[in-house]
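Long-time lurker. I teach an intro course on protein structure, and each term I like to show students one example going from raw sequence to a predicted 3D structure in token notation. This year I'd like something fresh instead of my usual example. Would anyone be willing to generate the tokens for the chain below so I can use it in lecture? Attribution to the forum is fine with me.
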Amino acid sequence: MKHSKPAFAMITVVFLIILMATIAAFVLNLSGKMVQATTAQYQREQAMLLARSYTEYAILAVMSNDRAANCLHTITGDIGDAPATGDGYQARVEIRYIGNFAQVGTCGANNILSSTVAYPQSPLNIIVDTYIQYRDLDNANQWLTFHKRTLQKI
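-- Reply from a regular --
Happy to contribute to a lecture. Here you go:
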């Protein structure tokens, strides 16, 4: 009878060690998933803020640009480390003009919107498409793109 107590204690200790190891593995798995979700949320928030900044920059650039002499259609930029190899961002802004030919000037020559939706009394408007591309930090082969479209009266 005295020998059965140590054997029972040994089985209990082994069971508790297995139970604690299972709980520890579950906690580590859950914390890893939380880190991945937080990283993805951080990258998306950064892309949203960059898209907003580049959209405002494009609107400012169009307003200060002489459309009779020079048309602004595209703005590009790299933010942070080299996006192709690191954790940086690539920005591309495409600008299209909406308005009558007198307002748009030569900028509407390649823009079908100038002649189809604008009337002589229509104000000049632009459509700003902002694309922010970045690599997923958890999967370096996957590019993610955030797109923001804005219609702005000039």
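Some talking points for your students: Residues 4-153 form one domain. The two ends are 94 Å apart (CA to CA).
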